[in-house]
Design goal:
Blueprint (H helix, E strand, L loop, with lengths): L57 E3 L17 E5 L2 E8 L9 E6 L9 H9 L5 E7 L1 H4 L8 H19 L4 E6 L1 H9 L7 E5 L14 H5 L5 E5 L18 E5 L17 H16 L1
Parallel strand pairs: 4-5, 4-6, 6-7, 7-8, 8-9
Antiparallel strand pairs: 1-2, 2-3, 3-5
Helix pairs in contact: 1-6, 3-4
């Protein structure tokens, strides 16, 4: 298949000792320059087209995308062919002497890619706790498109990747999740992919200003233990708007932050709390 354009991910070197982790987007810190062990956890309707009818292949990306520095986003990216096109995954494995206890696959939202601050924070912190993180880029993003695909197409671009990752995880518990649209995909398809739980970050409960158009059923019907983490000023829905969740679900409301977990000047940072909530919930899931 011909090479696909990829969004450039700018990288700046920032001495960790000089800048608090909560003040620096994780995507700005080269992974190769910061040992994961140095970052404390506290700081940091499926389509009618059957997926089984479409062959799935996996291959490493032969050439590093332009503007993407070596080892800044985990291991060498790998392409997975899906019915919606090529998806790309980047692994953040556990350190050599750390036992892998879970695998967490995370998808991005409709407004950006895996450079999102919350996804990068989790990828940078969780491996040290024995949780391998895999960030998955949807085919529309890999193809360089500016507008996200429809929900059914997003599911088609996700399910084959999740199934490959689950098989590779073998007996290790496999958890799926994502932010915004990626959280919706994980809720809709988690059972199908053999996951044991779902992590929903900034779940878009409704379009901004339209609470009557609720998507709560996607959360309720995930069929799996589900963690929902919402920022205090998320226009797509704050924690107080999530009602009628089953007992298997846990809702964490943060004191500040918008849909991207960005906070206003003077408000406390919330990325540390996102990392802590996900880490603690997965620990509970593994017991």
């Amino acid at each position: 298949m011909s090479a696909v354009p990829v969004s450039a991910v700018p990288v700046s070197a920032v001495p960790v000792s000089a800048v608090p982790v909560s003040a620096v987007p994780v995507s700005a810190v080269p992974v190769s320059a910061v040992p994961v062990s140095a970052v404390p956890v506290s700081a940091v309707p499926v389509s009618a087209v059957p997926v089984s009818a479409v062959p799935v292949s996996a291959r490493p990306v032969s050439a590093r995308p332009a503007g993407r520095a070596a080892d800044t986003l985990g291991t060498v990216p790998e392409l997975i062919t899906t019915p919606a096109g090529d998806a790309r995954l980047t692994r953040f494995p556990t350190p050599a002497r750390t036992k892998r206890r879970a695998v967490l696959a995370l998808g991005h939202g409709a407004g950006g890619g895996i450079e999102a601050a919350d996804l990068q924070a989790l990828a940078g912190a969780l491996p040290a706790s024995g949780i391998e993180v895999v960030l998955v880029e949807q085919p529309w993003r890999v193809a360089g498109k500016k507008i996200a695909s429809a929900p059914k197409t997003l599911d088609l671009g996700w399910v084959p990747v999740a199934e490959v990752l689950r098989k590779r995880a073998r007996k290790t518990p496999f958890v799926v999740g994502g932010r915004s649209a990626g959280a919706r995909v994980a809720c809709r398809t988690g059972l199908e992919t053999g996951a044991v739980g779902v992590v929903a970050l900034s779940f878009p409960l409704h379009p901004p200003g339209k609470p009557e158009k609720s998507r709560i059923e996607e959360l309720r019907d995930s069929g799996l233990p589900t963690l929902i983490v919402q920022a205090g000023a998320d226009t797509f829905g704050t924690a107080s708007e999530f009602r009628g969740l089953p007992g298997t679900h846990r809702l964490v409301g943060l004191p500040a932050g918008d849909h991207a977990f960005k906070v206003k000047k003077g408000d406390p940072p919330v990325l540390d709390a996102v990392v802590a909530a996900v880490t603690e919930w997965i620990e509970t899931l593994l017991r």
